[in-house]
């Protein structure tokens, strides 16, 4: 950690409350702050009772003997239980009405729709599981998945889980080298892919990328190819002896061989790679029972799911949000999930809203980066569609600035839908900080309160609580079921990264504060916290002040080494259309920040940018902007950067 986080200053003047509507509350699972408090207390004081009741529907083949064992830094949950995650997500619904209810409604980028009931999805998973067994994939072998957003990617994940083979999904935007490194790190035996996918009207050649990656992956024996586009749209080469056609393979398989493997609670379910600021990506390992319980219970309460809901999580399956809230959480709850193949602006910026109207989506879960992009395009787009089916909105991935929150609540939720701002990480596996939509009032920019079983605290470097209205490090005092178990192949890195900073606790890497009402505000990665003339301030605070200016669409704040001040404040700003990036604007924005936060936070430099460098899941990469601001080359992992030309352009403008 580069700075002493002791006194991150708190400058958000947000004090507004928004209440869920009485109609929403009346039907909600948890209807008041008191009810939440009771359940929360139970989850901490009588965890056995709490988790026994809340997991009753998950199908444990044998019950657990010990709820949790916490031998720092290793947690083990539900020891003694055996289960199969695909059985919990699929088989358990077959004896109910859900068998014929849609599990997936798929909207392709060109506009086709496919529906798959729980019965049909189950059938496909059984067949592929049998086929994988036929290829010699055994319990414990790793299966890599490099696909787009098609129902078959869900089939692939659940089929791997069915035979006890941990999957590693690699986002389809990664280049061959990144895919190769991830396959090699976990020594995957089989790669599941597809010929290509539609994206922004073009075609992404996934299979061709796999071809290049597997030139240097000795562990890979077979590549199974789903034909999404067909040979006439995107011709691909199939290598004799290595590459197999998905459909042909599945046809030959004996469905009898697709029975679920019984696995122990702590059996690995998946490895998901997440980039560190330096060094190679970390393979975050999640295990079966704890992860599934975390995803299942949080989905049920945070999204307050009903059988009548059409639930849409816009995240790609290549990210943890796609794993927990597109696949394991909603399917284990028997939900109907919408899945969209393409880009939010194809063929135009109205696409999301048309999809909501067309499929009568009731719950939308998306990211601040998308919301800010929509704001930039204006309110005319959502106005063109009927959004009256929506009843609940969610946000995840970054701090959402109050302006964007209110825009989302007003223009998409039409003032009617609660917004849950959910904080969590790849490592946490499931949502840990949030409001519950029918129980809590909401404060824009705040992620709310701890979810059941979660004990967050804000501390200084010595691990002492800093109290309310003070910034510090966000840590978690107790293990929760879906905590990562290790970094694949590097337990020492796991210990160092998460358990060496604060004695006896999990360190999130985030800076945060609790407001006077106890609501948590995450102000950004602690490495990004700025030290401006002795004042420590989270990037989110400055960015939020900038975005509250009517001309600003998006902003990123970083520090630049400065001999006099220690750190000079440099802000990168993307303007809304029809605004001139000139000196007058720079001055106006500088004054605006001084006004909103204080003179000490007046930026030393304002730089205009067409777009900001982001990860492929939409997070601003401040680390790279810091290098641009300091005029130095970037080192460290850039494989997650969405568009390298953004950085090149920023450097040119220097
Ligand atoms: C789910 C996901 C994790 C990091 C996390 C934070 C930031 C995520 C919020 C947020 C403020 C939120 N996993 N973050 N959600 N910050 N408010 N609601 O994003 O591993 O990719 O990223 O994202 O910094 O540590 S992740």
* Strand order in the sheet with the most strands: 6-5-18-17-19-20-21
The residue fraction in helices comes out at 25-40%
Structural class: alpha/beta
Largest beta-sheet characterization = 7 strands, mixed
Number of strands: 33
Rg value = 24 Å
Give every kind of bound small molecule, once each: 5'-O-(acetylsulfamoyl)adenosine
CATH topology of the domain at 121-261: Rossmann fold
Task: Summarize the structure in words.
The protein is an alpha/beta fold and 654 residues long. Among the domains are: 121-261, Rossmann fold (3-Layer(aba) Sandwich); 538-652, 2-Layer Sandwich (GMP Synthetase, Chain A, domain 3). It has 20 helices and 33 strands. The strands form ten sheets. A seven-stranded mixed sheet has the order 6-5-18-17-19-20-21, sandwiched between helices. Strand 7 (143-146), helix 6 (151-162) and strand 8 (167-169) form a beta-alpha-beta unit. Helix 7 crosses helix 8, helix 10 packs across helix 11 (320-332) and helix 13 packs across helix 15. The protein is globular. The mean pLDDT is 94. 5'-O-(acetylsulfamoyl)adenosine is lined by residues 274, 320-321, 396-399, 421-426, 447, 508-510, 522, 525, 617.
């Amino acid at each position: 950690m580069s700075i002493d986080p002791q006194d991150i200053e708190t400058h958000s003047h947000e004090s507004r409350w928004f209440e869920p509507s009485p109609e929403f509350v009346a039907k909600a699972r948890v209807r008041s702050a008191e009810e939440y408090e009771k359940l929360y207390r139970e989850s901490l004081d009588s965890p056995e009772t709490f988790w026994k009741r809340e997991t009753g529907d998950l199908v444990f083949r044998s019950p657990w003997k010990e709820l949790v064992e916490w031998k720092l830094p290793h947690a083990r949950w539900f020891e003694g239980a055996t289960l199969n995650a695909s059985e919990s997500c699929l088989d358990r619904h077959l004896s109910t009405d859900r068998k014929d209810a849609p599990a997936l409604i798929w909207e392709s980028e060109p506009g086709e729709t496919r529906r798959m009931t729980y019965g049909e999805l189950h059938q496909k998973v059984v067949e592929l599981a049998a086929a994988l067994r036929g290829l010699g994939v055994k319990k414990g072998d790793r299966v890599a998945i490099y696909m787009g957003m098609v129902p078959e990617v869900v089939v692939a994940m659940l089929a791997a889980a069915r035979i006890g083979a941990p999957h590693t999904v690699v986002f389809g935007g990664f280049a061959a080298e990144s895919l190769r490194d991830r396959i090699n790190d976990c020594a995957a035996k089989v790669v599941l892919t597809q010929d290509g996918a539609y994206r922004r009207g073009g075609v992404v050649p996934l299979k061709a990328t796999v071809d290049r990656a597997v030139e240097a992956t000795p562990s890979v024996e077979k590549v199974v190819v789903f034909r999404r586009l067909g040979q006439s749209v995107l011709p691909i080469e199939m290598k004799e002896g290595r590459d197999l056609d998905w459909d042909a393979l599945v046809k030959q398989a004996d469905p009898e061989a697709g029975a679920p493997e019984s696995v122990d609670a702590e059996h690995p379910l998946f490895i998901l790679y997440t980039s560190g600021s330096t060094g190679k990506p970390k393979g975050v390992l999640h295990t079966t029972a704890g992860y599934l319980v975390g995803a299942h219970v949080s989905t049920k309460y945070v999204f307050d799911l009903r059988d009548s809901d059409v639930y849409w999580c816009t995240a790609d399956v290549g990210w943890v949000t796609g794993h927990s809230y597109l696949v394991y959480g909603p399917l284990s709850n028997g939900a109907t999930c919408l899945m969209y193949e393409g880009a939010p602006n194809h063929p135009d910026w109205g696409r999301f809203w048309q999809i909501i109207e067309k499929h009568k989506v009731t719950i939308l879960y998306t990211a601040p980066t998308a919301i800010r992009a929509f704001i930039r395009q204006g309110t005319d787009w959502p106005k063109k569609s009927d959004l009256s089916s929506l009843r609940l909105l969610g946000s995840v991935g970054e701090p959402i600035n109050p302006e964007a929150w209110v825009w989302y609540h007003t223009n998409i939720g039409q003032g009617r839908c609660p917004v849950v701002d959910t904080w969590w990480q790849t490592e946490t596996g499931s949502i840990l900080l949030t409001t519950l939509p029918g129980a809590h009032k909401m404060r824009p920019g705040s992620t709310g309160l701890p979810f059941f079983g979660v004990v967050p605290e804000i501390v200084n470097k010595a691990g002492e609580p800093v109290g309310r209205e003070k910034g510090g490090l966000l840590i978690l005092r107790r293990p929760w079921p879906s905590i990562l178990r290790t970094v694949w192949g590097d337990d020492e890195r796991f210990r160092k990264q998460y358990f060496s900073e604060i004695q006896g606790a999990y360190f999130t890497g985030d800076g945060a504060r609790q407001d006077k009402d106890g609501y948590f505000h995450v102000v950004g990665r602690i490495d990004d916290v700025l030290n401006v003339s002795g004042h420590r301030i989270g990037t989110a605070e400055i960015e939020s002040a900038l975005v509250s200016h009517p001309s600003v669409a998006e902003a990123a704040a970083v520090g630049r080494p400065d001999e006099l001040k220690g750190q000079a404040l440099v802000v990168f700003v993307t303007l809304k259309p029809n605004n001139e990036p000139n000196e007058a604007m720079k001055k106006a924005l500088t004054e605006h920040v001084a006004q909103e936060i204080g003179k000490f936070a007046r930026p030393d430099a304002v730089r205009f940018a067409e777009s900001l460098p982001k990860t492929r899941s939409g997070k601003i990469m401040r680390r790279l902007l810091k290098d641009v601001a300091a005029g130095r080359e970037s080192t460290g992992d850039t494989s997650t950067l969405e568009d390298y030309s953004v950085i090149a352009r920023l450097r040119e403008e220097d």
